[in-house]
Design a protein that fits this description.
Order of helices and strands: HHEHEHEEEHEEEHEHHHHEHHEHH
Structural class: alpha/beta
CATH class of the largest domain: Alpha Beta
Number of strands: 11
CATH architecture of the largest domain: 3-Layer(aba) Sandwich
Largest sheet: 5 strands, parallel
Helix content: 40-55%
Shape: globular
Distance between the termini: 24 Å
Length: 338
């Protein structure tokens, strides 16, 4: 079954936007060596209108990824290095008392670095919960409030937050309710020998890869709008629903043994929203106008791994959340069994 796109978008325009989106991914790969799944995940989160949490050790190119993406899309890039002494006003901005030419004093709002299109929140778990909350509220509401005045954030607005999974001393782990604000959690592993060789060749020579500007903010917002119109059939939607329900340990008939044994709380309804919209974007990037079962499975790991809360038994057994998500994917059949 294929989808129909509303008349305001001709099929030729939709195909042009699809080609541009794929070209953006290829352009990123000209600079970022390897990590194809991470590049696809970041692009899917961006086109879905969500945010991504990237977990990986320092020095793996996270800053380069966001900066390159801003150049390809001609978007304003901001970077915040999170530290324990960082205050909310350092991120969102503050009212500053200034003198006018007439001698009158008044407060003027000075915008913080959050007023950008692409924001790299580096090592977000090093900031205090108060500062983390200020950022995550802005991510959800797309506005900030200073005093009695609301300020809208620019569109598009995308946050790529990073955290180091190894060096946890002196950090403030994000609460589960705040992790749920991220559409995806992506993992950045160590490069292979071939990838490391290519990285060294690219970064230690005189010639540095240059990227082209392939789209702008308006085109990106148009891609988002078209991707949301991708059709998802009722049976595929039902498959996404059953995946979410299979993460609930209390549902003995639906959940696999690993969930019943190791999961304390399952995924939230926001996880279902992430599955569906990310699957639509994946289908859009594949040049299709309908969501397949495979599209749902392709985004399930990144959508669910930060939304399952494991119990103490899982920690004792050394079971990680990715293995639980794999068990859920293998347990739920495509067609609903009565």
């Amino acid at each position: 079954m294929t989808a129909t796109v509303e008349p305001s978008f001709a099929r030729s325009r939709v195909e042009e936007l699809q080609a541009s989106a794929v070209a953006i991914e290829h352009e990123l790969a000209r600079v970022i060596v390897g990590y194809e799944d991470v590049l696809r995940g970041v692009l899917v989160a961006l086109l879905a209108g969500g945010h991504a949490l990237l977990e990986g050790a320092p020095g793996l190119g996270k800053t380069l990824l966001v900066r390159t993406l801003s150049e390809v899309l001609h978007l304003r890039y901001s970077r915040i290095q999170f530290t324990p002494d960082l205050m909310p006003s350092d991120i969102i901005g503050t009212d500053v008392l200034v003198d006018s030419d007439s001698g009158e004093r008044r407060f003027v709002f000075k915008h913080g670095p959050i007023f950008g299109n692409l924001l790299l929140a580096d090592e977000i778990n090093r900031a205090s919960p108060k500062t983390q909350s200020a950022l995550l509220e802005a991510m959800q509401e797309r506005t900030i409030t200073v005093g009695t005045t609301d300020y809208a954030l620019p569109e598009p607005f995308f946050v790529l937050a990073t955290q180091n999974p190894i060096e946890m001393a002196g950090t403030y782990p994000l609460p589960e309710a705040q992790l749920d604000r991220f559409l995806f959690k992506l993992k950045l592993g160590s490069p292979s020998a071939e990838q490391l060789t290519e990285i060294l060749n690219r970064t230690t020579s005189v010639d540095q890869p240059r990227v082209r500007r392939l789209a702008g903010p308006d085109a990106l917002l148009e891609m988002r709008h078209v991707a949301r119109q991708v059709f998802i059939a009722p049976h595929v939607m039902n498959y996404a629903v059953r995946l979410i329900l299979a993460t609930y340990p209390a549902r003995d008939a639906d959940a696999p043994q690993a969930v019943r044994q190791f999961v304390r709380y399952g995924a939230s309804p926001r996880a279902g929203q992430a599955l569906v919209i990310a699957a639509k974007v994946t289908a859009f990037l594949s040049g299709r106008f309908n969501v397949s079962y495979q599209d749902i499975r392709d985004v399930a790991r990144a959508s669910l791994r930060h939304r399952l809360i494991l119990n103490i038994e899982a920690e004792v057994a050394g079971t990680d959340v990715d293995s639980i998500v794999e068990a859920v994917i293998h347990h739920v059949p495509e067609e609903h069994r009565q």
